[in-house]
Design a protein that fits this description.
The chain is of the alpha/beta class and 297 residues long. It contains ten helices and eleven strands. Helix 1 crosses helix 10 and helix 5 runs parallel beside helix 6.
Amino acid sequence: MNTVTKPPTIAIASGKGGTGKTTVAVNLAVTAQRMGRNAVLVDCDVEEPNAGIFLSPAFHDKQTATVPVPVVDQDRCLGEACKKCIELCRFKCLIYMGDELMVFPELCHGCGLCSLACPAQAVTESTREVGVVELGEAQGVHFCQGLLRIGEAMSPPLIRKTKEAALEQWPSADIVVTDCPPGASCPVVESVHGADFVLLVAEPTPFGLSDLKIAVKLLRKLDMPFGAVINRDGMGDDATRRFLETEGVELLGAFPYDRQAAELYAQGKLLVDGPEHFVNGFKQLLLSIDKKLEASR
């Protein structure tokens, strides 16, 4: 019996936006490919995916992503005499009003509990589109991104489907790099779920440090292995380094705050196509993460 092995996944996250998550994720994935790895880059920042700006991918597949939502047969519904579905729904997407069970699909998380709980079998399932998943190739890297439907309030279901689509499309990959959304809320939790290692991109500023502390607390709560890299090192002070040392968070690398990096970024170019210290820096970062993955096996 053949067992399908999931490729090691590195999630690139941070507490705040603008720290350089996408920069690190894209350059790390390209570095892996140039070092002979079968690399996949997944952009899970589905509300504003931007990894493709640096890679200009050629997409060959586009999939509509949907989530299940309840549909009510009003003739079967027991109405006021029951209300089990309303009582059990944690997300308050069902209400009884005007002698009718009403559904608010935008609030539904697709758990299916209402259908299972209905004694009259009055609740069935339909689907609601939440966005699209696009798959393609870019500079030798397999690339997948999710794009949330305009007006959609919940991104975790699309993030989950984006990750699943990437693994289904490229099961023989030997490394997956996931570019996560900013913050420490549900989209981030879904993005890092299942990752073998999380790399926190830290910014050496008071604001960046404040949000980094929240991200560290989140990952410890989730009991996930993680380390940190400092981007734009030298821009602020050494408070971020002191915090990482005090908290026992291993610093796996640091990229300097310099004009060359800013110029490459402004032109939509990769740092690993620039100065040698960036090329070597990302190689060393990848090797350091490899050691962490190996030690955890």
